[in-house]
Amino acid sequence: MATIELLKQNLPIEPDLQSFIGLVLTTVKQLGGNPFAAARAMLGIVEDLRAAGAATGYPLPAHVWLEGQDLVLTWGENGRGLVSRLKAPPGAEEAQRLQQQLQQSTELADPAVLLRRNLEMGRYLDETRRRTEQQLHEMQRALEQRQEELWASIRQAETDPLTGLLNRRAFDDRIEQAFRRTLRQKNESLSLVFLDLDFFKQINDEFGHPFGDAYLNKMAHAMRDVIRADVDLVFRVGGDEFAMLIFADASTACSRSMQVLAAMDNKVSVGITSIASRMRGVDLATFIRRADEALYAAKRAGRGRVVVDECSRSDGCDSYCLAANDQ
Q: For 116-125, what is each residue's pLDDT tens digit?
């Protein structure tokens, strides 16, 4: 005999649960099953129903099935229990008649029971909403905390511990982003500035490492003082090697570099190159090489000066190949 669903009922309140138990036991009796054995089986099943949320305001769906000779209950997603094993399966007409009878029984409702059911279900839904909102709030807080920890970890990995400037790892990442962005824009310039402290090893050897560390921090402050904090970027890319990414033309970058030079008593060599969004045929490696060559030109020319590479000077910056004594 095929499986037949005899009854489906939600169990949000205690009267619904008690009514459901009574209908199940009545069904066992009408089908010729053992009511005492069924009552014992229902004791364990009712505990499971309550654990699953029956009579708590939650509209727990429960089903009564006839599976051959077995009368079976199922509830929720995975709940299942055997109520009674019949001596013989009922005929199709008897099963259909019982199915209609049970359906009619559940359709009869006391107005007071309906009111209580609605109140209990409303309370359950309100509690569920508040609990869900609290869980979402806690999840959001946990996510924000995790994001803060992640950003802190990233900042730590990209920060030079002595000066607080961005480090070489950050430089490699930021310069590629800035270079590609500049070429995409309609009207924007980007200048790359390389800076080396002149004779830093001698200063370190003569005055000691604490003085050398303070000297490096003085350089970091001098660079920070000349950039726009929310726009331009400053880096310590090596022991006594620094860099600036300035979103402006070579003339502006040179002016700011001269301020750093003055703050450091003209003991810094500086090389500058620049690109504009209108330029084509320049790749990132060439851009970096030009700034590096300008830096070494400054060193060869006697140190303590700013040199702008030829390509950038040809863009209206001819006067910006300056030594400290040229000011």
A: 666 777 777 7
Alpha carbons 190 and 284: distance in angstroms, whole number: 12
- Residue ending a domain, among 93, 108, 123, is 108
pLDDT above 70 for 63: yes
> Under a CB-based contact definition with an 8 Å cutoff, are residues 18 and 61 in contact?
no
More confident residue, 112 or 182: 182
Report the distance separating Cα 77 and Cα 31, nearest Å. 27
103 and 172, same domain (yes or no): no
Give 13's Cβ-side CA count (13 Å radius). Answer: 13
In a shared domain, residues 178 and 269 = yes
- Amino acid letter, residue 199: F
Query: What type of residue is 224?
Result: R
Alpha-carbon distance values, 183 to 112, 210, 252, 309 (Å): 75, 42, 19, 19
pLDDT tens-digit readout, 314-327 = 544 433 445 433 43
